[in-house]
Amino acid sequence: MHVFVTGATGWIGSATVDDLLAAGHKVSGLARSDTSAAALAAKGAVVVRGDLDDLASLRRGAEPADAVVHLANKHDWADPEGNDRADRAAIGALADPDRPLVVVDGLSGLARDRPIVEDDVDPHGNEQHAGPGARTIVVRFAPTVHGMGDWGFVTFLADAARRTGVSAFLGDGSTPWSAVHRGDAARLIRLAVEGAPAGARLHAVAEESIPTRTIAEALGRALNLPVAPVADPAHFGFVGGFLALNLSASSARTRDLLGWQPTGPALLDDIAAGAYGRIGA
Q1: What is the pLDDT of residues 238-269, one digit of tens each?
Q2: Is the pLDDT of residue 80 over 90?
Q3: Of 4, 7, 75, 248, which is least packed with CB atoms within 10 Å of its CB?
Q4: Kind and range of the H or E run holding 104
Q5: Measured between alpha carbons, how far is 132 from 151 in angstroms, rounded to an integer?
Q6: Can you tell me the distance from the alpha carbon of 248 to that of 207, in angstroms, rounded to the nearest whole number?
Q7: Percent of the chain with pLDDT over 90
Q8: Please, which residues bridge with residue 3 across strands?
């Protein structure tokens, strides 16, 4: 199968490209820089030059492919509305009734007082933007897709701890997050390309519920910093708003549908191993 991947050199995208190639698929990837293009070419992937704002390049990359995986995002935390607009336009350009389109999303729009399940519908999620007739499959990521080299939410928590001298948690720290290792997330995306039905909602969730206080305590041990509660989400920067959300989630139906079984390290194991810094670092 020929799979076109946007965000092909990003945190999850690079692992997805590796997994697809290892499984014998032909992969083409979107590259906006010479560095990204060289990294893709070195792996044996076909390079498609362009970026998220260049819709013609997206269509050019998708046209010869049997399936598309859309992982690119601007990640401009200061302009979330701009991120969303660009993402919606890209999804519209990539959607086609003749090939599956795997799009990714987060769980924050579905936060509630119980674990989020695959049947829960996000009326504002990416699955709504492909248009009628599209063969869309949505993969919803846990708030932390962790591993060595992660630059996501837990990295921001670790940076806040180093900046302030305390590994903090919000309120009583009982609000739970789910988690998944980067390699497990990449494998789920590949399984989705290979066998998920159109309209499927999948959860890239290995650990269903980890109290945010437990995450703060693990970071405190790794960084040799005291652990304490704070009342103001602004202490953490933009990620503070997510700490107040119950982002526990189940992946039971995803596992049943695709036979996906996470095997990567747990979040606390990655923290202890130094993925987010060590004592004295």
Answers
A1: 999 999 999 999 999 999 999 999 999 999 99
A2: no
A3: 75
A4: strand 100-105
A5: 35
A6: 8
A7: 84
A8: 27, 67
